[in-house]
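Onboarding guide, step 5: your first structure request.
Type a short instruction followed by the sequence, for example:

Predict the 3D structure of this protein.
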Amino acid sequence: MSSPPELRQDAFISYTHANNRPIYDNSTGWVDNFHRHLEVQLGEAIGRDVMIWRDAQLSGNVHILEALRSKIQETAALITIISPGYVSSEWCMSELREFCALAERTYGLHLKEKSRIFVVVKIPPDGDK
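The system replies with structure tokens like these:
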């Protein structure tokens, strides 16, 4: 059996692009701001620069899927930005499923007894769906 891939990314942010639309012209979106704050605060907390990746502009095609699979495979933790749009997005759900599947085949869904999936609720999805 081959060894698991090296974990090069501290985190991968999975989100729907609709949740990153800027409110004002020439401003940044919610996910942009979250990403930057997380990098700074997590880096301060653990005492080193952190590597957090997200798909800022990609659209779905086979090459993109392979690139995402590669990023997911070398990521220690998945951060999901939950919203109604996220849970209804087949693309977002496939990122989550892919992370879980790759995690089960490599390091597992927990590292040092801590979950590798973090849920950030931006907008609660409708519980009736």
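Each response can be followed by summary notes, for example: The helical segments are 30-46, 62-73, 84-88, 90-105.
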